[in-house]
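Exercise: predict the fold of this chain.
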Amino acid sequence: MEKALKKRKEPVDLCTRPLFGKIVLFALPLILTSVLQLLYNAADLIVVGRWSGENAMAAVGSTGALINLVTNLFLGLSVGALAVVARFVGARDDAKVERSVHTAVAVSIIGGFAVGIVGFFASTVMLRWMDTPGEILGLSSLYLRIYFCGMPFNLLYNFGASILRACGDTRRPLVILTAAGVANILLDILTVTVFRMGVAGVGIATTAAQVVSAAGVVIVLMRRKDAARLRWRKLRIHKAALIDIVKIGLPAGVQGTVFSLSNVIIQSSINGFGETLVAGNSAASNIEGFVYVSMNSVAQSCLTVAGQNYGAKKPKNIDLALLQCLILVTGVGLVLGVGAYLLGKPLLKVYGCSGEALSYGIERLRVVLLTYSICGLMDVMVGALRAIGCSLLPMLVSVAGICGFRIVWVYTVFRMWHTPFVLYISYTVSWILTLGVHIVCYLLIRKKEFARLKATPADSPTETVAEAKDFQRAEEKI
């Protein structure tokens, strides 16, 4: 592991052609990293489902939407950090890379403690809001409280990994998360099968794994030899860097939070069918997660590659990266989505599903996975828009097209035809509508931004938002 962590110290050049091979080499470790991160929860579900029963599995599985709801705002800021650092790396502006890195790490630490405290004390209340079945409410609340104790480490890892990815490094986060994933699975087995701790055991295992991953990413950042090196004495929030991060990250975080709100509403509707359907839905949702994070890794690759080329003022490379990522994400979505559906029964049985729970899980997989590549295309378009500095518009489109549409669907169509199938089909319809609008938005924003890039000399310094505003004020005074 030590050798793997020392291999690459400098930012990777993602601004020279050919790009496709670089995108694939960048995306593959990111896909594996995302899959390993998701294995935390999958390992929890599998171990607790097999050795503690369906109620325990339903208790852990039903918390996913709520965890995302509470954490997505700050995880969105990590996306902003990735976009900003990637832009300054592409522009070869070391001073701004350094300030952005230390601001991002400071935000992750403050945000981690804030989210952890809120989540710990509000867990039971929020679960009641979701109409969590009484049979699993106590177990779900216990798992959430333990999970939120690890939130400072969770956010520190995610922000640190975003910084490394912005520099073109997706391999070392993979090495770190591999170690954390192995620790998580071993501790799952130990706490559940040996110490019989059930839901509490898998919560402790996940929190311990988050500590390992956070420590690993901090060590890697401290050992870098470039502007992205972490120095604790320089840790502070720089106003200009924070504004840039918030400009992109806050809309992304709000979008993720509202996404999660719509999923919480859907989860609440699923909870109304009882714990058997909740168990099958939880297992199927977790399987879908592996396909989603793989597609989302391609979207993050598009954000990073397009972001570096935006900083380097190479608009043609931005278009090429977007096209290649759209082709790549379609292939990933179709191969993994159809493959996971065809293997649905054995995969669900791994989670301990049987009987009605198995049937419910298969129904969800059939509706969602066979059309999942549309969701991947949508995420890649959002990544491209954020890379060229546009984050508010895709947030508004996504909030309306995904969240607003699903909420309306739940309270209208679903009330008329009260079946799980009608609930699940809302995902596909919302993806199609939102993808179409994102494509139109990109074409419009692209025309404006590319004209600006062509009018700016290639070696001109990159402005921060605050600097641009100061310049504008000066012009107005003149």
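Check your answer against the key: The first helix runs from residue 2 to 6.
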